Amino acid sequence: MKSNYRVNASAHLRVLSEDQCKRLLGAAVEVLERTGVLYQDKESIEIMKKAGCYVDGSRVRIPGKLMERALRTVPAKVTLCNSRTGKRVMEMEGNNAYFGTGSDTPFFIDPYTQKRIPTSKKTVSMATKVIDALPNMDFVMSMGIVQDVPQLIYDRHQFEAMVLNTSKPIVITAIDIEGYGDIIEMCEIVAGGEEELRRNPFMTLYAEPISPLLHSEEAAQKLVLAGKKQLPVVYTPCIMAGSTVPATLAGAMANGLAESLSGLVLNQQTNEGNPFIMGGVFTIMDMNTTIFSYGAPEFDLMMAALADMANFLNIPMFGTAGCTDSKLVDEQAAIEDAISILMSAQSGANLIHDVGYIEHGNTASLENLVISDDLIGYARKITNGIEVNDETLALDVIDQVGPGGNFLTEDHTLKYFKKETWYPDLFERKIYENWEKEGKKTLTQRANEKVIDILEHYEPDPLPKDVQSKLRAIVERAERKIIHK
User: Fold this and answer.
1) Rounded (10°) CA dihedral 297, 298, 300, 305
2) pTM of the model
């Protein structure tokens, strides 16, 4: 790590050298040329064949020249907006780091009972409301699969629950191309039209290949539709070293990178210059438990290395942090959350998701979310580095106060102490007696109180009633379609 390497630089972490990035890219290109990938969608295969790929049934080998072309045409910056105002609030490029939650967990910790319950439309609405209220949460993912509605169309319900409870950018998942199309239509209504959504998008799709090296029909179709609609798309392999990809971290990364970049080629062949966000959830399969580990050091190491690759390729990066293998919000959760958040903030990932996950991605916890919100503020203070100039060196103030004095009453202190110091919301700094008088509350108790306060007193900016009605009509239309199938 080189802290303040440049004048007024921030404190950043780098895992891979430039030579290592070149070698990993070369390995991914060789995988695509030599081994190839499977596309299970006929239109996608035709697009790749027309572009000059070598096609054998559904197996497609991609020439390096197509990869080079895709890397030239993909934008270096992707912007997302506030859904209510259209204001551009997330500019994903360089080392700009934005944090948000994850999506499709099956379980949720009820903040009122602390019971682990199935996720529902209500829990997604609750989670979204808390995300909207937190200052360090920049975007929203659902923190749950809506399970109390018809499952063939849960994605429409999920999006409705989110967009009604937040004005922040939304990262969606969609069951299939029909679900994605309906959600795009809902977004166009909120934005004020197709062109308005294209110019000021507040939504991006999150889709995944299947490791190793397979693009399902649904995933490939969504990549193509994103290109046709000229909307941003996140394409993210979720790899397990030793299981779905090689056990060596370099081999795992080469395989995962090939998957992400083969998605990029398809998306760019559909529409050159389409906004695309690469990334992944790169971790190990823990051989003792078989879990997809969110707390392993290899997870943090590979995610930081992947950010190096994204910066090397000049493509915005979808990262992962603020999550834990712990089954509850405890010391293990705090440690794993903190390490992943700090490493992600320092690594240069741009769209960092899964904040608030516990139980290796099976459960969402709002207490873990609000604790992580404080940790993100902590991490951002570190990555901002130290500003060194004539004013901040304060030599005249030092001389004026002199030996034996104090700086508490100086105007310079009044001017700078808030700017220079990070103040936590949940982390405890009171003297012992005051903490004792206030009930000796633990961090998790304070986090729970904050969650309850938001749920009972905070109100997000509402959508106009006529817009809400139009969104409801699309959801009800989808319900009618499945009834008549």
Assistant:
1) 140
2) 0.95
